[in-house]
Amino acid sequence: PRLVDSAADADDRAVETALRPKDLAEFVGQERVREQLDLVLRAARQRGGAADHVLLSGAPGLGKTTLAMIVAAEMAAPIRITSGPAIQHAGDLAAILSSLQEGEVLFLDELHRMSRPAEEMLYMAMEDLRVDVVVGKGPGATAIPLELPPFTLVGATTRAGLLPPPLRDRFGFTGHMEFYAPAELERVLHRSAHLLDVEVDAAGAAEIAGRSRGTPRIANRLLRRVRDYAQVKADGVITREIAARGLEVYEVDDRGLDRLDRAVLGALLKLFSGGPVGLSTLAVAVGEERETVEEVAEPFLVREGLLARTPRGRVATPAAWAHLGLTPPQPGGG
Ligand code: ADP
Which residues bind ATP (predicted)? Predict the structure, then answer.
C-alpha cells in the first residue's frame, strides 16, 4: 500500500483509535463544520432529544469517522459503525435499525455505495422512524412495520453530489470537509507526536505537514515512518533534516508526491513533451494499469495544479516542469 494513500490500512486502524480527538474542542481545523455542528449538538442537548441527521462529505482521511464519534461523545450516546458496501441487502439494514437504542448514533460510511432497496428503507427510517420488516418469501411475504426510537444518522460520502437528492434532502445538516492547510496539519502532528511520545520540533512538523497532501491520516502515517527513521538513524528527535531524510527513504518528495506520481509526471514531460497524450498511452509508458493512473495518481496531480485533463488528453502545467526541474520545450522550436 502507498504511504500517501488517503484511505486507511490495517496499520492505521491500530493507531487511529489512540490519535482520534475525543471532542469538538480537540478537533483541529474545519472551523465552519465545527461551528455548525456545535450548534446542532448544543440545540439537541438543550431540547433533550436526538440530534438531527448529519451528512459529512469529503475525501478519505479528513476526519469524518472522527466527527461521527465526536457526535456520539458530545451527545453521551452509543455509536454503531458500518458502511454502505457492508450492507448488501435491505434486511441487513433492517437488522441494524431495529436494534438501535434511543438516541444512538449510526455512522454509515460510503453512503453512496449502498444498494437501492437499502436506501429506500433508510428514507423511511430517517423520516418516519419506521422500517418495514419483510417476513416470509414469495407471494405469502408480508411487511410488518416496526417503530424505531429516535436516532441520529451520521452519513459520510466522498461527494454529496453522488447521493440521490431524496436521500441528501433528509439530512438536517451537511458539513463539507476541506483539505487541511499546512498550519493545521502541523497542529495535528504536534498533537499526535505528544500522544505517541515522539519529540518533533516546529520545523520538523512543518516539513512533514508540507508532504501530507492536506490529509490528517497521511500526516499521522508519515509521522510514524519518520519516527522510525529518527529512532534508528538519529537520536529520536524529529527535526527538519531528519524528516526530509526519512521521507526521502520512502520516496515521498517535498510536495507529497510519491514514486508513482513522479513516474506519471516524468513520462508526460520527458516522453510526450508535456502532452497532450491519451490516458492509455501514458499508462503504458509507466507500466501501470489505466485505472491506477487515473484513480490513484491523477487526482492529486490535478489538485496540485501539476496536470490537467483536457478533451485532447493529459497535459502538464508549467508548475510540473518546475517541480521536476525540467525545462519546457520552446514554442516553435524542435
Ligand atoms: P475519514 O473517516 O474521513 O476517512 P478519520 O476520521 O478516520 O477520516 O481520520 C483519519 C485520522 O486522521 C484519524 O487518526 C484521526 O485521528 C485523524 N484526524 C482526522 N481529522 C483530524 C482533526 N481535525 N484533528 C486531529 N486529527 C484528525
Answer: 19-20, 61, 64-66, 170, 180, 217
Largest CA distance in the chain: 78
Q: Which residues contact 273 (CB under 8 A, 6 or more apart)?
A: 329
Q: Is 174 an annotated catalytic residue?
A: no
Which H or E run includes 334? none
Can you give the pLDDT at residue 118?
A: 93
Asked whether 218 and 101 are in contact (CB, 8 A), the reply is no
- Ligand 1: centre distance to CA 121 (Å): 29
The answer, as to whether pTM is greater than 0.90, is yes
In whole angstroms, give the CA distance from residue 98 to residue 73: 22
> Rounded to an integer, what distance in angstroms lies between the CA atom of residue 255 and that of residue 270?
20
ipTM value, please give it. Answer: 0.99
Instruction: Give me the catalytic one of 80, 92, 158, 240.
Output: 158
Averaged confidence pLDDT in the chain: 94
Q: Is 27 in the pocket of ligand 1 (CB under 6 A)?
A: yes
31-74: pLDDT as tens digits: 999 999 999 999 999 999 999 999 999 999 999 999 999 999 99
Question: Cβ(217) to ligand 1 under 6 A?
Answer: yes
Q: How far apart are alpha carbons 35 and 162 in whole angstroms?
A: 25
Q: Which residues of 25-52 are buried (b: 16+ CB within 10 A; e: fewer)?
A: eebbbbeebbebbeebbeebeeeeebbe
What is the rounded distance in angstroms from the CA atom of residue 293 to the CA atom of residue 28? Answer: 32
Give the per-residue pLDDT at 11. 87
Helix and strand element counts for the chain (H, E): 15, 9
Return the C-alpha torsion angle 275, 276, 280, 283, nearest 10.
20
Within 8 A by CB and 6+ apart from 313, the residues are: 275, 276, 277, 278, 279, 281
The DSSP bridge pattern shows strands 307-310 and 313-316 to be antiparallel
Peptide bond into 164 cis (omega under 30): no
Number of Cβ atoms within 10 Å of the Cβ of 85: 12
- Asked if 87 and 118 count as a contact pair (C-beta separation under 8 A), the reply is yes
Closest ligand 1 atom to Cα of 17: 14
3-state secondary structure of 55: strand
